[in-house]
Structure formats: C-alpha cells, structure tokens
Amino acid sequence: MDEVKSVIATYIEDQFLVTYGADFQGDTNLFEIGIMDSYGYVQLVEFLQRNFDVVLSDDEFLTNVMGSMDRMSDTIQSRLSEVRAG
Amino acid sequence: MRHPSGRYWITFNGEIYNYLELRDELRALGCHFADDSDTEVLLHAWATWGEGCLDRLNGAFAFAVYDSVEGTLSMARDRFGKRPLFYTRAGNRMLFASEMKAFLACEQVSFRPDIEDFATVLATWTPLPHQTCWEGIEALPLGSVLRLDRSGQQEIRQFARPEFHDNFCFSTIEEAVEAVRARVIEAVKVRLRTDVPVGLYLSGGLDSSILASIMADLGGDGGLSSFSITFGDSDLDESAYQTIVADRYGLRHNPIEITHDQICAAFPDAVYHAEVPVFRTAFVPMYLLSRRVQAAGIKTVLSGEGADEVFLGYDLFRETALRKRWDSLDTETRKDYVARLNPFLAHFSNARQSGILGLYDQFSRERMPGLFSHEMRYQNGNFALRLLKDRQVAETGFAPIMAATSAAADFAGLSAMEKAQWLEFNTLLPGYLLSTQGERMGLAHGVENRCPFLDPNVTDLMGAVNLKFDDGWDEKHLLKRAFPTLPPEVLTRHKHPYRAADSTSFVEVRPEYMELVLSEQELDRSGLIDTRFAQRLMNKILTTPADRISVREHQAFVYLLSFQCIQQQFTQRDGAYVRQDKTVRDRLTVAVEIQEVA
Fold first, then answer.
1. Phi, psi of B353, deg, nearest 5
2. What is the dihedral angle through the alpha carbons of B552, B558, B560, B562, rounded to the nearest 10 degrees?
3. Contacts 24+ apart (CB under 8 A), A71-77
4. Quick one: closest CA in B to A66, which residue?
5. Distance between CA atoms of residues B31 and B23, nearest Å
C-alpha cells in the first residue's frame, strides 16, 4: 500500500472504528455498506484537503470522489502529481 | 367500571377530549349517566356502537372492555399512540398493562431481550409500533384494536392510520390559514376541559409558543404556569426564546437548568421508565421537568409535540425534497439549498467549501426500498448495529421497517414527502417523542401531556394545507401565518431540535454504573453485545475530545448504556427497581389486569 493510501486507511480506521481488510477494502463503497456518515464525511473531506494540502472542487465531489478509499487516493495522487509537474 | 346492563366491564387509561359531545349523542339515544367521567361515556359508547365508537373518539387512550356475554376481551389504543398498551401471555392467561414494568409483579413473566426488536431500535432509533424489545411481550400498535375470543384466539385490526387526502380543497391560502387557526384553537380548548390547572411545556420554539398565546388568550384562574429546560451548554440552551415568550404572555415561568451531574444521576431511573433502549439522553431532562411540574401541584400540561410531523417542521422533510429533485438541479442551485439546511450544525455551515454536495449526491437515489427520506439518518443505524454480536441479525436490522412499509395500505402510492411523514408517524413520534420522551417521563411523576397538534381535526388538514400554497422551504409556513402575532424572534428562528448532552455528561461525571459499559464481564452478560466493538467505542468516547465525537458515536454509547441498564433492572430484576420502589410497585400492581382465557 502506498503512503497516501496508508494515511487514508489509518484515518478511516480511527474515524469509523473499522479495520482495513476485514470491514472494508480499497474499492469498497463506504456509503453503500454504511461505514460513512455525514459527520464522518465532512471530517474526512477536511482531513484530506488539509493533510495533503489540496483543494477539491464542488464538481469533483459530484463525481463520487469520496466513494471508496481507492478513489480518494487516486484523486489525491493525481492532484499531487499535477502540483509536482506544475 | 361496569356497564348498567352488567354485560361490559372497562378499564381505561387516558382522556377522551370530546366526551361532552359524545355524551349528548348517547343521551339522545337513551343512555343514562351516573357521573361526569369520560370513562362512563366511553363505556356507553362501546356498548352502543361497539368497535365503531373508535372512529368517534378524540383523545389519548388505551382501554380494555370485557364482554361477559360473548366472553371476549377487546383492547384499543388511540391513533397516534399517545397511551401505551402492552400484553403478554403467561400460561393460559393474557396479561396486559400500560407499562411493561407491571409484568415484573408476575413471576411467570421473564424479561428476555428480543434481539430482532433491539436491532430495529439500533437501526431506526425506535421500536416499530408492535415491538417492545422484550421476547414474548407485544405492544398493541397505535390506532389498533385487539379482540381476544373465548378460545384464546386473537385478532388485531387497524382502525386509523395517517391520512394524506385533501378533504377540503381550499381555494386560497387565507382559507387554509383560517382553518388551521380555528382548529388548533379548538384543539387547545377541548384539552383544557378540566377542573384542575393545566400547565405548559415551553420549549421556546414555534409550537409551544402558539400554545402559550392561545392559552393566555383563553385566560383562566390564577394565570398560566409554564415549565422549561435550560442548559449551561449554549449550543443546547433555548432560554432566551423561552423568556421572550413567557414575558410576552405573562406566564408564571418555571425554568430548570439541567446539568451533566443531574443527567447522570437520573439516567437509570429515567431508563427504567422508558423500558426500552434509547438513542439519546434528551428524555432524561424531561423526567426531571415532570418532577418539577408535580412539585408545583400541576398534573396536566399541554405540549407542542406533533406539529413538526403534521406541518412539515423538520429539516428532514426539506432534505427529502432536495434529494428527490437533486438530479434536475444545477450545481449552484444545489449549493443554495444545501446551505439552507441545518444551519445550526457547525459542520454544515460552510457548505460551499466542504464538498458536502458529494454527500447529498450519494443519497439522491433510493437504496433501501421505501426508506428514501430517512436513508441519511439511517446511516447512523448501520454503525449502532455493530454493537450486536450476531452479524446475521445486524445485517437484517432494517428488514422489519421495510416490511412494515411494504405491508402498509397505500404506502407505495404516497409522495416522497408523505412517505417521510408516514415513517415519522410510525417510528420516532410514537416510539420515542410521545412515549420515552413524553408520557413515560411525565407519568413517572403523575403528569399527563396533552398534544393539541395531534387532534384529529387538526391532522385532518395535512393533505389540504401542506405544500398546496408554498414550497415547504419556510418551515410550517401556514402555521406561522395562522398565528402572526407571536414574538417575531420566535416566528423567524430556524427550528432548534431539542437535545441534551449525550456521552459528554457521562465522560465528565463518570457515574458508578458506567461499569456496565466498561467491564468486559458486564458487556458480555447478555451474550448479545459485540464486546470488542463496544470496548473500541468506549475507548474512543473516553479518549477523544467531546467536539470530535460524532452523533452516531454518541448514539451508540447511549444505546449501549441504556440497554445495559434495563438488562439489570428488568432481566436481572434488580432489587432496587423491583422491590424497593413502593410507590411505583403499589401503582403498577394495581395496573396489572389478568384475564382468564378459557
């Protein structure tokens, strides 16, 4: 697991009291299996943007960015690459 | 009470508000009355019209009538579930009572937790109308009548359900507003038909303020006493609004400030009166408030309960409307609506920056059949269900509520908003607001709540006034227009849900009984709790700053603590609750009625 994914997995485990591998996988839709709630969602969005120093747009949020850990990680990775290429 | 013919016997808990009108009707039919009670009117109504009398009753009631000729027992409950009625079988006997704790007086009745009922509570906050969370003990559903025949066979029939038809077809908003105003005032009047002073629960919100204005207008001897809860926590406190209303209408105002210490001290007793696991602590201050009412010598209070369900007061209704239209709206419009929802929740206030659109987007399509309106709320239920050791039961926690909606007549044909109302009328209102937070806390101190907004003449207006003249985004718009002279601060404020501090109180005070949720042995005593998850939850609750604990973590904690308390009180028949509370014991032993089944 790369570093971005690992940071997100640890946060999800602590925030939602779940265990990676047992309760959710990288591609699990966290809404559909009832892990994500509104408060946790808002906290997670804030955490991702603050921790990785990125800002996601409203339109990005409407493309299911937050649906699974893999999608969050891919979005953050691609944003970080853009910054590095920048 | 026995009917003059000797045929019918009645036992009755509640009030029939239209008993004077019914008595006139019955007199015209030849009935004679020996006293001035609504019990006698109800008995004659049953003898005259049989089950047909139920449609004529305007009241809060649970009663049983024994027909000595037919050898049948009939039991009925009012349409909104104001008054409870529980029953169980012990050998060849049917036992019934208004409170389940009455069955503690019968050694043949054992209190074993019903895991499927408990799962429903964890999933949806409350038991369904027939559920009690105890194996073998049933609740008679609201608006239903049970008939038990000589052979012991029973049959339950629903005689009333929420109706959303437009029976009035008002042509202008003024006509609709006038009907709302006239019917709410009349509903208050019939609830003041009593020789004793009637008080008011004043929250500081629109509904209780309307009641204050009507009661003040109607006058009465000695003025009107109001009773309110205040909190030191500014997020929860509404005392500023309560004072404005009390000053405006010259109320004899009785606020009591509730502290974390008091919540912790009263929690086990309040849970004992709730009799079921509970999802938040807000009922505990109501237990303490009714004690204050009792100390003031008042036995009856009016309460604004029901107005939010009838006139679409909750944000849940606007959230449902928004999610229903989500796909047809552009991003800017979505942002505007989202920002108007829940402004009191800090984490929603910066909707434009927080990516919250993505959250609503996830909930814009129905995933749980019939439950679209409540799916965001029920996400918290998935978390609480993890308290259960039995994963199979946990995974089917929502099955009973989905089965109830699919079995309900006409449910499928309701609009998204009406389905939301239907769910509120069948879950949170009867299963918590009117019971755990309402009557059960009131009657623990002999105080009866009366709810004018649940008068059938008021609720009949639902289909004719809701969303007919407005889009629903100004909460309870017609109700506000019906009472325009209320203080402007009350008319313009956003609805503030009544809450109390949840796990925060217990973490701060650490009452001795917290051992019930901290000790692995205690957690494992029922055999139903996933002790590993419970310990993980408790660790987070105890080690995380209060403002980082989520709503659903608070809820899971209160569920767990209340479940553990009632296991001790009921399943283990803790001596402190079964033997020593003489007042309660005397009252409840009298309440136990035993009917021989031939």
1. -105, -15
2. -150
3. A72/A8, A72/A48, A73/A2, A73/A4, A73/A5, A73/A8, A73/A26, A76/A4, A76/A8, A76/A48, A76/A52, A77/A2, A77/A4
4. B358
5. 8
CATH number at residue A46: 1.10.1200.10
Size of chain A, expressed as the number of residues it contains:
86
Confidence tier at B221 by pLDDT (50, 70, 90): low
CA distance A30 to A13: 12
Cβ-count burial of B191 within 10 angstroms (0-12 exposed, 13-18 middle, 19+ buried)?
Answer: buried
Domain boundaries, chain B: 8-123+134-160+587-596, 173-305+434-492, 315-424, 503-572
Report how many domains make up chain A. Answer: 1
Strand segments, DSSP code E, in B426-502 are 448-450
Range of the domain at A28: 3-85
SS3 category, B490: helix
B173-305+434-492 CATH choice from 2.40.50.140, 3.30.70.60, 3.40.50.620, 3.40.50.2300: 3.40.50.620
Chain A residue numbers touching B361 (CB-CB < 8 A):
61-62, 64
Establish if A19 touches chain B: CB-CB under 8 angstroms: no
Q: Looking at the predicted complex, does its ipTM rise above 0.85?
A: yes
Question: Span B8-123+134-160+587-596: which CATH code?
Answer: 3.60.20.10
Minimum-distance CB partner of B379 among A34, A64, A66: A34
Task: For B66-98, write each residue's pLDDT tens digit.
Answer: 999 999 999 999 999 999 999 999 888 899 999
Residue A57 phi, psi dihedral angles, 5° rounding: -85, 165
Interface test with A, best of B124, B361, B385 (most A CBs within 10 A): B361
pLDDT digits (tens, 9 = 90+) for B539-593: 999 999 998 899 999 999 999 999 999 999 999 987 666 544 555 555 544 444 4
